[in-house]
User: Fold this.
Amino acid sequence: MAEPEIDVVAIGNAIVDVLSQADDGFLETHGLAKGVMTLIDASGAEGLYAAMGPGVEMSGGSAANTVAGLASFGGSAGFIGKVRDDQLGAVFSHDIRSLGVSFTTAPATEGAATARCLILVTPDAQRTLNTYLGACTVLGPDDIDPETISAAKVIYLEGYLWDPPGAKQAFRKAMDIARKAGRKVALSLSDPFCVDRYREEFHALVTDGVDLLFANEAELISLYEAESFDEALQQIRGHCEVAALTRGDKGSVVVSGDEVHVIDAEPVARLVDTTGAGDLYAAGFLFGYTQGEDLARCGRLGGLAASEVISHFGARPETPLKALL
Amino acid sequence: MAEPEIDVVAIGNAIVDVLSQADDGFLETHGLAKGVMTLIDASGAEGLYAAMGPGVEMSGGSAANTVAGLASFGGSAGFIGKVRDDQLGAVFSHDIRSLGVSFTTAPATEGAATARCLILVTPDAQRTLNTYLGACTVLGPDDIDPETISAAKVIYLEGYLWDPPGAKQAFRKAMDIARKAGRKVALSLSDPFCVDRYREEFHALVTDGVDLLFANEAELISLYEAESFDEALQQIRGHCEVAALTRGDKGSVVVSGDEVHVIDAEPVARLVDTTGAGDLYAAGFLFGYTQGEDLARCGRLGGLAASEVISHFGARPETPLKALL
Assistant:
């Protein structure tokens, strides 16, 4: 079998973020659950947008942010996801390609508009996500090209793909191709409520099929319906080859069988917006992993990338991450 | 005649900014003149966008930024400008309305897309503007509602309106209505090359019709083809009731006949992006002016608003300006 030519190919929802500042009262008035991702439909998006303050539009999407970060470190990456052939689709496509990420998924030419995520950032730097999936709902197995998947050292999948119906099939198809080609499969659990929605399926994936798991504390606890982080940690050790577990300002824990690393968070001068923290942790980790670094170093690179992205608004690096190495 | 019900109505190009970081080499490679505004056509915009790094989309437009800033101080404002009924037009309309600015100009339902300005921010915090006017080219006198104009204490016009053909007529119509209603007419000279393109007409406007002039040093010198700022200053004193002249980190000079105020710039902890500095100076000045403050205080409020906007990316305030008072 040929050697892989690219570090990471990610599959995810192709989303443009609309970031706006809000206070806790706004979240309360609109019944928004702070810190998590809630799916909204077109009319819900319209209503919330009309109520929000002025916004800033930036390309987003969890797995897309991760490959954007990986490319910013100097890694090679591809992305598979579905936009529509509209202005926001052009923004998403431009931004990811301008970073050198290969993005060739055909845009939808009819139906729902490019997905957007209305993100409310509160003064405590927490972000509350409200996602209108739009064109992401038409991603399907036909969008998965076996050659692209087999060419990557790691295929990276976001748990959010379980929400749009066809994306799950695309996910499974890509996972099967990657495994047959002897590649590594990485999964991010995405969000505690996403884990709630698909716990059994995610459990099965983690036990059989996924080599690298990315999760934060709340997601991991939800996966195992555990009482504590440590209890969940003991379970994941037996299930995945590698698990990289983020804990906010407590840093991260990387486990692989008997090997356990507890890594402190990087200091941050000013915490502004936690949007993208997990996505960029995965970017740094995967950059190290695909360069053959040891797991402790991978975790530190993850923390480094996360610390950059939480020091400003938006889920993608403002500073080339390569410059931080 | 009825008392005015609103502080400022502005007429300007309705533009969404696309901000991206670039180095001097990029400007050189693409033949871009640093620090000024250059008009580009659709294919020029496409080519430059394809070459640019990842962008951040934010509502912009010079006069629109000014009323956004005025509203952020707590002033009342309206805006007249033309978008298309597309996604970026919806972004522009949402953002300005979310600040409480009345914006009722009917969007174009056919023809060119909503205008965008591709802004390259260099490490020295200078911004280089490349504007595709799009739907702005169909703004015309029919978009000027006499009641809206007469209801404002000040009507604020950007010099950039001289570029799209019909906007100049809209500008003149609005100016005539405002003068007949006994309102003040304010003009921003916008850009030194814009002054170069329309020097004779701007000269005539400043001499007869405009009560308040906003200009930076380069624009004022260009207007009078003067050798120095001071030489141009002596000329403007005889022409306009009030001139508010910005000089970057040297602060501003406000002149009204024999009254002259030399106002220091507000200190800025970190200069990030000068986009919107002049627009926000005008916002602070007009907020003071319409509240009946003296000219020195108006100039200081202008400096305060400008110092906020140059401390972060983008041409609109991140912090409610009211909070800085």
In short: The longest strand of chain B covers residues 15-21.
